[in-house]
Design goal:
Layout: H1 2-10, E1 16-27, H2 34-42, E2 46-54, H3 59-67, E3 71-74, H4 81-90, E4 96-101, E5 105-106, H5 110-120, E6 124-135, E7 138-139, H6 144-153, H7 163-168, E8 182-184, H8 185-188, H9 201-209, E9 215-228, H10 233-239, H11 242-254, H12 257-270
Parallel strand pairs: 1-2, 1-4, 2-3, 6-9
Antiparallel strand pairs: 4-8, 5-9, 6-7, 6-8
Helix pairs in contact: 11-12
Length: about 280
């Protein structure tokens, strides 16, 4: 981060700030990837507020929060993925919030692109971007699953306010990468995430978001990297077959039960990509 700031000063550029936005970093247990996530957020070309929350306080998280001068708030109430995300959002005082997952990395121009987009269309519900997948420290080629997601999102380039087109983007799976999303809490409130599901709570949340009249602002270029690794919560839920059950439950919100069962036969094959 220091090197990036020095380069900007040398080139005569000022660090821009967008104070109506907060990155909420949700930290869990002892993650070897947390510091890399923090660095990517602090290295944004447009600076904003940063907050860290956890329901599993430990020395590792506390040291990193202190090292990077980030406010750390402990969730002492109901914990879990959804409750922790909502806890983080509820502790912000800005209209726009990005919930960062500790395993992932943001490109330095992520927020710059988001700000440019939302400043033009402030009637948005969520704003989000494409993403790359990171495995063993390297960006991997686009999987079939990611290519399908990009196709499903294309209608939003035509009309991002249409409830019908917003739902098309979700009918064959969650095509929206959760940590790439910036929430408009003026519309969604401070507890935006649905918490009934464990694995598909983001997909369920985006489904609920389609009920609002605002836009789904989609930036069709990768602005972050989603890390795939065996210790991730998503991998654990897939291994325990939680995702299979919840995928079917979500498909039934878009399709008749008989057709949802047909979709599941094909969808199970794609799960191995951990998309």
């Amino acid at each position: 981060m220091k090197r990036k700031i020095k380069e900007m000063i040398k080139e005569g550029r000022k660090m821009e700030k967008f104070l109506n936005h907060t990155f909420v970093i949700c930290a869990y247990k002892v993650s070897p990837y947390l510091e890399e996530c923090i660095k990517s957020i602090l290295a944004q070309s447009v600076q904003s507020n940063v907050l860290m929350v956890t329901s599993t306080p430990n020395e590792h998280i506390e040291k990193l929060a202190k090292k990077y001068n980030i406010k750390l708030i402990i969730n002492k109430g109901k914990s879990g993925i959804g409750p922790d995300w909502n806890f983080g959002v509820s502790n912000t005082n800005t209209d726009y919030v990005t919930v960062a997952h500790q395993d992932d990395i943001y490109n330095s121009d992520y927020l710059e692109n988001i700000v440019e987009k939302i400043n033009k269309k402030k009637d948005f519900v969520i704003a989000f971007s494409d993403y790359n997948e990171l495995k063993n420290g390297k960006v991997i080629p686009l999987t079939i699953n990611l290519k399908i997601k990009k196709i499903l999102l294309k209608p939003l380039k035509i009309n991002n306010k249409s409830k019908f087109l917003k739902r098309i983007a979700l009918r064959f799976g969650s095509s929206i990468c959760c940590p790439s999303v910036t929430l408009n809490t003026r519309i969604l409130g401070k507890t935006p995430y649905k918490t009934e599901l464990k694995c598909n709570l983001d997909w369920d949340t985006w489904y609920e978001c389609t009920k609002y009249k605002g836009r789904f602002l989609y930036i069709d270029k990768p602005l972050m990297k989603h890390r795939i690794h065996e210790q991730s919560e998503t991998s654990n839920l897939i291994e325990n077959n939680v995702r299979i059950k919840e995928d079917y439950e979500m498909f039934c919100k878009f399709w008749p039960n008989w057709f949802a069962r047909i979709i599941m036969k094909f969808y199970k094959k794609a799960i191995n990509t951990n998309g």
